[in-house]
Amino acid sequence: MSNEFNAAHESDMRAAAPAVPLLSLTGVGKTYVEPVLSDVSISISAGQILALTGENGAGKSTLSKIVCGLVQATTGSMLLDGQAYQPASRKEAEQLGIRMVMQELNLIPTLSIAENLFLNQLPQRFGWIDKPKLAAAARVQMAAVGLTDIDPWTPVGELGVGHQQMVEIARNLIGSCRLLVLDEPTAMLTNREVELLFAQIARLQSEGVAIIYISHRLEELKRVADRIAVLRDGQLVCDDAIGGYNTEALVQLMVGRAAESELDLGHRNIGAPLLRVRNLGRGAVVAPASFDLRAGEILGIAGLIGSGRTELLRLIFGADRADQGEVFIGDQTKAANISSPKNAIASGIAMITEDRKSQGLLLPQSIGVNATLAKLSSVSKFGVLDQQAEVAVADDYIKRLRIRSRDGTQAAGELSGGNQQKVVIARWLYRDCPIMLFDEPTRGIDIGAKFDIYKLLAELSRQGKGLLIVSSDLRELMLICDRITVMSAGKLVDTFERGQWSQETILAAAFSGYVNGNGGGNGDTATDPASAQAA
């Protein structure tokens, strides 16, 4: 009887014992020159979704890179299924089912979508790549994330950043996955793509996959996550059920202060056009577009990913060659010769690109080098760069833009994504161009820093600069813009004045070109009356 009782008791004890977490971190820290992560202890179980948030530079990406084998911790330990876990590389972590979709994408632009998806497991036949089999497998993975209308042989470099993000997500859904880390996965996605991603997350959770979801979009975190973990200055300040926190409380935890909910643009004088675009177009990518950008104005461009927004900015900046059309600066009657970015800069046009990693920064170089790159003559003497002058400029912008860094000599590649974005903005502030093109200016920037950027944009407009801003965040455009023009299927289809728009009207215009197949809206190139006038 005693043996039976003991056996039953041991069985009850095993049933009552908590399950071993899939992954446990104890006292994890990372120090470069200074500590960026300190004494973080946290765990996640199979099938659980952990929201991880915090300001830029708080340590989110560093922590996730340690988990996924990209960075080695300075202190602390990790357990996977209760066993010691210390991956020496990303490949080793992936072999154990730990995968990561990074904010900075890990794709090879010269290879096709299909080749990027199955780069390490290309199907072969008689020693050659089995292209039909590869294409079929690629279409299955692409369909899972909504990329059904794209040829799998399209080079990744020809895709927009949003579509590249979906390819990266699709790549990480191949094969065994026990823990998936998503670092700002929706920063460049449309609403439709976000819904597809959430459907995949729900499927993975039902299959027992654990997910660490890193985002600054707090409304998303509450929608998908069970728990919330908040990092501030490299330390874990919250690890709790997410249901007990509203947005204001989470922001307070993240930044140590309450968030601002409104933006005072201040008094501005909107003057004469600084930039006049007339019938500027390029093939089927951008239909002939005409509009004006006025002094002191913030003009937004809304639209779905792939609608031609970025491509239009690149045409204006001379990064791509236009098939037709002209660009006029100020009241000049002769069109500007903008055949390259160098010409554009000389004409007083700056562009903050959406892809800071490959197009916006020299990552191995210092903040000082990156911040002064567009105006080297101001930090050089007799053709020789003055490094002290570079650092002085960098330190000034570090203070003004609240860039989390050691000093102006720190390499841009060592900064968090949001702080890298601030360095790109600093470069063009230093150049002091009257016309500024911003492509996704707050991509990957936390909610506290976003308002710093918004205030900066307002200040630039008060100085009389003209700002043309592409953003996938409609609320952002509605908060900061004087006018919003909408692109759909490569065409400018409508323009709304402040007070005349709503999310519904803007979204209807954004979809119109795809529904009607002819650009929708008010015609091929609907613009306001002022911009319809001849140059």
TrEMBL record:
One GO CC annotation: plasma membrane
Segments forming a coiled coil: none
Predominant localisation class: membrane
GO molecular function: ATP binding; ATP hydrolysis activity
Pfam families: ABC_tran
EC number(s) reported in the record: 3.6.3.41
Annotated membrane topology: Peripheral membrane protein
CDD domains xref list: ABC_Carb_Monos_I, ABC_Carb_Monos_II
PANTHER family named among the record's database cross-references: CARBOHYDRATE TRANSPORT ATP-BINDING PROTEIN MG119-RELATED (PTHR43790), D-ALLOSE IMPORT ATP-BINDING PROTEIN ALSA-RELATED (PTHR43790:SF3)
Protein name per its UniProtKB record: Heme ABC exporter, ATP-binding protein CcmA
Species annotation: Collimonas arenae
Gene: ccmA
